[in-house]
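Chain A, query sequence.
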Amino acid sequence: MQKKYYCSLSSPIGSLFICQNDDSLSSLSCTQPNDKDERIYEITPLLKESCRQLEEYFKGERKSFSLPISFPATPFKKRVYEELSKIPYGRTVTYKELASMAGSPNAARAVGSAMASNPIMIILPCHRVLGSDGSLTGYAYGTQKKEYLLNLEKSHM
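Chain A, predicted structure.
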């Protein structure tokens, strides 16, 4: 049986909820987990390390994460998330550029859909993906949070 844990973390963009399945992170979001009743609220070593790395990120001390992640995704989404994880700290790309990076240059809308269902915000940095005109479109948690994250990274470049 799969072991499921979660914890919360106060951050400059509000409460973050971090979920762990077995030995990897399965979710990081601004909303409580849907399966909260099936999870144990416990600060496991992995969740503690996740909180530490996120706190460092918000202080501008961490530019990348070294945490195990695992979640179900289609092959297309896996390619998109893999390319998304390669976008450097403080840099941005457009949905169209990310589609090309993932090997599907005409799939900008599908990339947008993948970004909207990204289960691990910040660590998989969907906030670094912009509209073709540079606008802060399509962030699941609102453009204010996206703008905050981009400005945070820009200020620590």
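Residues 4 and 39 are 5 Å apart (CA to CA). The chain has a mean pLDDT of 93.
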